[in-house]
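Posting this for the archive.
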Amino acid sequence: MLDLGLPDVDGVTLCRSIRAASDVAIIVVSARGEIDDRILGLHAGADDYLVKPYDVGELVARVHAVRRRRGDPVGLGGTGTEVFTIGDVRVDLARHEVTVAGASVALSRKEFQVLALVVAAGGAVCTRERILAEIWGRTWSGANRTLDVHVATLRTKLGRPWLLETVRGVGYRLGTPTAEPGDG
């Protein structure tokens, strides 16, 4: 995934450079949604172009489509990881379903997107800025509080506060079932 809004280099130029050096799949994600921007990104070598804010389910579907076109129909990472299981929590990205101990948990669209982003990162830290950019597509004066409320609500609804581990001053990462209850 390549965001065109980079601080040090033009994203389109970087896309061209990557394409010149490699045949790696490139999906552009950008707030630049005008048709001319999308055409420019695709002509620069991107395999697909997704405008922010976007739905995590659509991103997953586009990743699968790009992989299918490239001859790898298995799925994300070649492991078919569109369904994640962490302890007794099951997150199905394609079906937008979450179950805890076999019971379905109803989440709002934004709650599901936050959970899916953190779970798909597989333990890597998702910065607050990344979560806000990828899910809300923008930031505003109350953005951090909005994210805090969504995470708190997720922890309550899932009944597994350890699942979304806070990395103080940075963001959130996937916790482990063996984490102590006070860790989240």
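The helical segments are 11-21, 35-43, 56-69, 109-120, 128-136, 143-158. The domain at 1-72 is CATH 3.40.50.2300 (Rossmann fold).
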